[in-house]
Amino acid sequence: MKKRLGSRSLALTALVVATAALHNGSGCMSYDEGLEGEITLQTHVEDWRDEVIYQVLVDRFADGDEGNNYRVDRSAMGKYHGGDWKGLEGQLDYLQELGVTTLWISPIIKNVDTDAGFDGYHGYWAQDLTALNPHFGDLAALRSLVNACHERGMKVIVDIVTNHLGQLFYYDINMNGEPDDRVAGDGVSSTVTHINEYDPDFDPRGIQSRTSLGEAGPAPVIFTYDPATNHVPPQPEVFQNPLAYNRKGRTYNFEDPDQLVHGDFPGGLKDVNTVLCEARDGVGVKEAMVDSFARWVELTDIDGFRIDTVKHVEREFWRYFTQKLRQRLADKGKANFIMFGEAFDGRDNLIGAFTKNDLPSEDQLAWENECVTDGRPLTGDQLDSVFYFSQYFTAIRDVFQLGQSTKRIEDLWALRPVNWGTEAMELGTGVAPSDMPINFIDNHDVPRFLFTGSREGLHNALTFVFTVQGVPCIYYGTEQELAGGNDPSNREDLWPTGFPTDGPTFDVIRRLSAIRRDSAALRRGAISVVWSSDRSGDEEDAGVFAFERAGGDAGDDYALVVFNANPSKDSAPSFNGANLTTSLPQGTELVDVLGDGQTFTVGAGGELALDPLAPQSALILVPN
Predict the structure, then answer these.
(1) Which pLDDT score, from 0 to 100, does residue 34 have?
(2) What would the pLDDT profile of 525-541 be if each residue is shown by its tens digit?
(3) Three-class SS of 323-345
(4) 441: part of which helix (H) or strand (E)?
(5) What is the pTM of this model?
(6) Rounded to the nearest 5°, which phi and psi values hold at 545?
(7) pLDDT value of residue 494
(8) What are the structural domains, with CATH classification, of the chain?
(9) N or C: where does the chain have the smaller number of CB atoms within 10 Å of the terminal CB?
């Protein structure tokens, strides 16, 4: 039977875990890493809707410092490959030419280095929230990257995780002091069960110990100590307390609310008990999360957080974390700090719920405010935005990849003012979340568009995310037509491409970035669907979708965007003699700024007659 850490592993109980931390040299806080402390914080963004975000998996983008290339194995997708912050800084010219204005970089926190044959190159296996991942550089290198971006007018968003820490302890179910992976039962007198003490199945009572005589109460939590793989007790010290975790085992049914919020993430990632605070419970989990992540802003002047796995954490935590972090940063001069979340789910009402001013019952709010010690009571505010996963499934996958009807996009958008927050958060971005979804095509959790889709379809989908309401987010390598499938195949190295800037998809993104930059309507305007179709066959408008961008915060600016998402036939915004109708007066001349500059004139009643568009193509029309 395989034990995760082998004979090198030294298991330590929670009673002596602090001693282990001292042996590892991490018993004291390590934020500054020898540099001076806080720097002057500034606000570097006017309106997040003006930005173009570029998601970077740091380990896979560019290797700028061979000095941090330990445990690098580029022959395996699940290992470290050597990318770092210095390499990213060296390619800022490339990114600016693409039209990028904001970098979203993968987590910076020190991770469990390797576990069960896979490395923590992605950053989601946190071990020490007070230290940086040495694979990517030190504090000087991170500050250098952030400063270089700010000098160019670019912003930096850092990925963070509050739901869980890495694989740092096991449940000693049989109480033998060793992490076992075994089969129990004989299949005759007892049921055969597989027991992995690092990753046992969810138990709503908490993981129970058991002996040959039966259950024996809650299983002891034992932290491991293996410096070679960085399986060492976590920092800050509060996370060395077993009470800081829910200790219910691995989630296997994500439809069960208890498992969804309180279960360990599959793979043994330990679920943090995020309702706890020092003032009320004597275990300062909430305070530690705010302190740890606010401190990295204070040391680097980064501009926002992308937050992982938000649907696995209680709303109570999001109210506390977002509000206390905004207040702390605003007091130090950092305003308009964005916080948007990732809920990997196609249900619009679920993902939108994290953006609402979600005021709980009076009793619940009073209970939550028992955690507040600064005299600034909590309100219902939560996140500024979330990844628009419902749009990813409905529009990017169903329409632009699979050629299904476009009416489903209009129907989805009609839900956003109901499902999402319609008021800006206090001290937040100043924009209602429903007006600022984060729009994407590819990311590190889904297959790349080109894994099954065409280049023409990709270009059409890119036009969509650059022109719809919200903020476009490009995954690194999309511009170089990387085409990997599911994780980890969608996490390819970018530097072997040589970073060329003359490829067709690079050019499309560069052009779309410029068009968007020059159009207040496409950045800040309200949106109104003027054509959608529930037809997807041979009908004349099958695959057509069109919307206007105007009003809102765009002033008098205007844009009309028309798509044919059909993969095989020409289609036009017309059906049974009816044509597309705009809000424009008769005689208005429009020019296509995406294509060859063709002009069109609006007819009586705002009607606009357009010739059929080629398969998987679009027009962006603005007043001439």
Answers:
(1) 54
(2) 999 999 999 999 999 99
(3) HHHHHHHHHCCCCCCEEEECCCC
(4) none
(5) 0.94
(6) -145, 135
(7) 98
(8) 6-23+168-271 (no CATH), 48-69+82-163+274-517 (3.20.20.80), 521-623 (2.60.40.1180)
(9) N
